[in-house]
Amino acid sequence: MQMNKVMKSFIIALPVVTMMACSSGPSEEELAAERNRVAQEQAEAERQAREAEAERVQAEAAQRVERMKEIVEEQKAALKQEQTVYFDFDRSTIKAEFQTLLDKHAEFLVQNPDQNVVIEGHTDQRGTPEYNIALGERRAQAVETYLMNAGVSSSQISTVSYGEEKPAVMGSTEYAMAQNRRGIVVYQ
């Protein structure tokens, strides 16, 4: 029975194979056209691969830029937690305890020349308004000078004096007045 099936298959297949063998092969033009088609497909595949690679590289570069921006923003947020320098009564000299704080700001500003700050100078309520504006200016300039001596560009820094106009703590206690004698590094 199985032999019958094999014979039937052979009988059906024999004319098909014979017809295929008798047919003529492709012409030279057909072969050249086929080679051109294959070459075009390969060229298109290579072009798509190059485009995909370029897109991947561009996406990675964009991710690196975005991550760097995030890092800068994280650093700036951390610096904003420590941005106040306090001064002694009637003085504009930076105390040694605030030099480390200012060094951190200077390092950040040197590494990020596109960042700008305004140094705000403040005083307590003692003294005339004119005197306090001048003292606030000297305090802001003291912070500015410190940062510039640490390598920060002068184009990144501006100063403003508010004198006694913007107290951090209301009142006339020694604590309140000490909190108001300050310079603040404000990022723009």
From TrEMBL:
- Organism, as annotated: Alteromonas confluentis
Q: Which GO terms describe its cellular component?
A: cell outer membrane
Which biological processes are named by the entry's GO terms?
cell division
Function description: Part of the Tol-Pal system, which plays a role in outer membrane invagination during cell division and is important for maintaining outer membrane integrity.
UniProt entry keywords in alphabetical sequence: Cell cycle, Cell division, Cell outer membrane, Coiled coil, Lipoprotein, Membrane, Palmitate, Signal
- Which superkingdom does the taxonomy of this entry point to? Bacteria
Name of the protein described by the UniProt record: Peptidoglycan-associated lipoprotein
What InterPro entries does this protein map onto?
A: Bact_OuterMem_StrucFunc, OMP_bac, OmpA-like, OMPA-like_CS, OmpA-like_sf, Pal, Pal_lipo_C
Q: Where in the cell is it found?
A: Cell outer membrane
Please name one Pfam family that this protein belongs to: OmpA
Q: Where is the OmpA-like domain?
A: 74-188
List the CDD domains.
OmpA_C-like
Q: Which taxonomic lineage is given here? A: Bacteria, Pseudomonadati, Pseudomonadota, Gammaproteobacteria, Alteromonadales
- Tell me how this protein sits in the membrane: Lipid-anchor
- Chain segments annotated as coiled-coil in the UniProt record: 28-85
Protein family: Belongs to the Pal lipoprotein family.
UniProt entry tagged with the keyword Repressor:
no
Q: How does it assemble?
A: The Tol-Pal system is composed of five core proteins: the inner membrane proteins TolA, TolQ and TolR, the periplasmic protein TolB and the outer membrane protein Pal. They form a network linking the inner and outer membranes and the peptidoglycan layer.
UniProt key word Cell cycle: yes
